[in-house]
Amino acid sequence: MNVLIAGANGKIGRRLISHLAADNIHVTAMVRDAAQAQSLKELGAADVVVADLEGDCSEALKGQNTVIFTAGSGPHTGPDKTVDVDQNGAISLVDQAKAQGTDRFIMVSSMRADDPSSGPDKMRHYFEAKGNADKHLRDSGLGYVIVRPGRLTEEPPLGKIKLAEKMDDFGEISREDVANVLAEVARMEIRNREFDLITGDTPIRDALQRL
Ligand code: NAP
To answer: Does the reported pTM lie above 0.70?
Structure first.
């Protein structure tokens, strides 16, 4: 399996490289800055490509079976960048992946992206951007998995999660556990599923098998 990670230098992305590489999956890390290449290769990335989600990513997508999108404009930029990266960048990557013959696209979205008005007003633009990208992916014809984690933490991994197509209570989960879930989703060849995700009591593989 050839996997392209968009957002590979991010906090989830860096952890995900190690998990996939440990399974001998060929990982291509997509980054904006070539200076990040060495450290990502040390984590296990087989290739590093420089591309910006706001531009042409077609070279990075050549030969990839699976794309994992875990990029984001982050909390320190304004709503404009959220739309540029989390929404339009994701939508553009879906379209380019389809054009390049990619088989499956795994999206790191967010809880509440499927119901932006359920969250705080100051976060509405973020949930809407994520939700618009998710809808585009769902309708794209690509095999898709949409993972909607709750608030991300830097806590150590528990290896146990709660997931559901729709969860009423907001919760949190460590980035390490999200990276583990993404790696398992890739390995298990899951497709055409979407779920909210927080810390819970069920081992990751068991929870995914019940999807
Ligand atoms: P992160 O550490 O901020 O990583 C985001 C990555 O996206 C960075 O490596 C960044 O590149 C990259 N990026 C930003 N703009 C880009 C562009 N135009 N082209 C290419 N790459 C670009 O994020 P994280 O903590 O790992 O979170 C990953 C995902 O979880 C995001 O999609 C986020 O929306 C989602 N999420 C977050 C929360 C939360 O509580 N924070 C909750 C649910 C879901 P640089 O390294 O060059 O800056």
So the answer is: yes
